[in-house]
Amino acid sequence: MVQKRKDERAKDIWKQEKEEKEEDEVEREGDDGVSSSFFYKSLIRHIFYHNEKLYELILDIVESRWDSKLERPLHLAGDHLNHAYCYDNPQIETQGYFMDAINTCVVKLIPPVQEQDQVSIDLEKYRTAMGTLGTKLALRQRKTLKAGKIL
């Protein structure tokens, strides 16, 4: 009897999660899964039995910490280099904080000066879609392939 109630409760929880997912429509373009923030929010809602009064403060804390991570150089550089975004937004080059983020990451992650210089050259090729990045195949796949998979 107890096990049956647990099974029914589990089915109800997953049904509710599925409905929330459909309502929120948080699947990222070109991705097979849901975003991490959606996963954590769903988990927190589940832990607090979907009682908004109980989980509201926790979600506010998580979201504020999550947002602060989005402003870090590595995340900004990743956004700038994501082919699904950067080619559709040519103004991204004029937003200095993206280039500052890339330069910060290059200097920190690649100590040899010669390699840093090569990265700068390669970034220009990426920005202007030179070589393989400018082929019809690569241009078509900017929106369909995950970042890092473009030809």
Characterise this structure:
It is a single chain. The chain has 151 residues and is mainly alpha-helical. The protein folds into two domains: 2-70, no CATH class; 73-140, no CATH class. It has eight helices and no strands. The chain has helices at 2-24, 36-47, 52-70, 73-81, 83-86, 96-109, 113-127, 136-140. The longest helix is centred in the first third of the chain and has 23 residues, at 2-24. It is elongated and about 70 Å long. The N and C termini lie far apart (56 Å). Residues 1-19 have a biased composition (Basic and acidic residues). Residues 20-32 have a biased composition (Acidic residues). Residues 1-32 are annotated as: Disordered.
Low-confidence stretches: 25-30
Distance between the termini: 56 Å
Molecular shape: elongated
Largest sheet, in brief, is: none
**Gyration radius, rounded:** 21 Å
Mean pLDDT: 76
Strand content: under 5%
Oligomer: single chain
Secondary structure tally: strands: 0
Coarse structural class: mainly alpha
Order of helices and strands: HHHHHHHH
Query: Helical segment tally?
Result: 8
| Range of helix content | 55-70%
What number of domains?
2
Biased composition (Basic and acidic residues): 1-19
Region (Disordered): 1-32
Biased composition (Acidic residues): 20-32
In short:
By secondary structure, the protein is mainly α. It has eight helices and no strands.
Helix/strand layout:
Elements: H1 2-24, H2 36-47, H3 52-70, H4 73-81, H5 83-86, H6 96-109, H7 113-127, H8 136-140
